[in-house]
User: Which sequence fits this backbone?
């Protein structure tokens, strides 16, 4: 019986899900290449927590992808025997006139999602840890909560191995060459031949798909953890996202002793390489966080108890690349999720695996397709 040999480059947020999905397919030999170890904290899967939400403020067309991801998250937890999500809800805050608030309202109404609209009095009574601006409203997304990213990636890779996938840890891929009849994967430990390849290299993708240079930027987000002020309760409750006029988000930590706060893309440092960790975090870097705590999160003590960084790929239009590589029918690229990818990772993993095997996507992703040309 002939087998289709498929390589997955990068076993992080998306690559781990692709590998697991391929390992479930009959007649497929799946091999994953990871330059570090599964579940490392250097790429977009670092930082202890990510937000899962159903309400989509980017574009309501993401909702069907999210619904499929929700189904696959439940399946993945059953397969791994581990709790990978904590569904505590997520509150979206901002002025009703803000485009993101309008998009979120459109998504929850069009797709019949479970949500509550909260006015100023309701927010003060039920979620007093947040300060609201005078014209603010809030959307409480019930089908939402916190994801454990590192545990998810590691658990998914181990599951893929148990299903028959081969995992090559600590192996750096140097080049991916489409020969027309197959693909050669060149690594620091030798070359390998495959029928198809999925490149899911996160912030390292520009090295392997140079046509993305100029449209995909590498950014260094900062996450900061804060404990509650003396005399206040330990952090609990939903994850939260303020959409305007200042964009930031936060997630109560799984251990219940702090809250992680993160900023919008406009506050992320652009770097040349994701391995560039030499620049220290300064007081100037933390200034936006201090402003946020003073203006909107009064119950948090403004002395950080933990600060960390990681790296992500951002597209200019914030829409990810989920398609064949430029000029190649044998290489699929999953990249540039712009800080919004982890919640839909199982669905994107399924889509990437389908594309690698020449099959159609189970949900509509045509709106994500674009022409990618190498910079002149």
Assistant:
């Amino acid at each position: 019986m002939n087998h289709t040999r498929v390589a997955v480059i990068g076993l992080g947020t998306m690559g781990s899900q692709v590998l697991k999905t391929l390992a479930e397919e009959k007649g497929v030999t799946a091999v994953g290449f990871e330059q570090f170890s599964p579940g490392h904290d250097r790429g977009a899967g670092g930082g202890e927590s990510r937000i899962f939400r159903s309400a989509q403020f980017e574009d309501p067309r993401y909702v069907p992808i999210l619904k499929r991801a929700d189904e696959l998250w439940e399946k993945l937890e059953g397969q791994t025997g581990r709790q990978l999500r904590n569904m505590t809800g997520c509150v979206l805050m901002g002025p009703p006139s803000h485009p993101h608030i309008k998009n979120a309202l459109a998504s929850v109404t069009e797709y019949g999602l479970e949500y509550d609209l909260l006015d100023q009095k309701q927010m003060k009574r039920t979620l007093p840890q947040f300060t609201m601006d005078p014209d603010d409203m809030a959307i409480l997304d019930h089908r939402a909560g916190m994801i454990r990213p590192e545990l998810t990636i590691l658990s998914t890779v181990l599951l893929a191995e148990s299903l028959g996938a081969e995992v090559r840890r600590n192996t750096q891929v140097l080049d991916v060459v489409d020969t027309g009849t197959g693909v050669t994967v060149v690594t620091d430990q030798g070359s390998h031949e495959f029928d198809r390849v999925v490149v899911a290299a996160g912030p390292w993708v520009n090295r392997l798909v140079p046509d993305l240079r100029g449209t995909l930027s590498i950014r260094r987000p900062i996450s900061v953890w804060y404990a509650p002020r003396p005399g206040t309760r330990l952090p609990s409750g939903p994850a939260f996202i303020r959409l305007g006029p200042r964009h930031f988000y936060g997630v109560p930590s799984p251990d219940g002793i702090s809250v992680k706060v993160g900023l919008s893309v406009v506050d992320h440092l652009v770097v040349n390489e994701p391995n560039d960790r030499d620049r220290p975090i300064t007081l100037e870097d933390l200034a936006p966080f201090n402003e946020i705590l003073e203006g909107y999160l009064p119950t948090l003590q403004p002395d950080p108890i933990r600060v960390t960084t990681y790296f992500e790929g951002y597209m200019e239009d914030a829409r990810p690349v989920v398609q064949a590589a430029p000029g190649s029918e044998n290489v699929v690229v999953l990249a540039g999720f712009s800080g919004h990818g982890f919640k839909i990772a199982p669905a994107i993993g399924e889509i990437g695996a389908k594309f690698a095997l020449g099959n159609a996507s189970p949900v509509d992703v045509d709106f994500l397709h674009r022409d990618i040309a190498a910079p002149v």
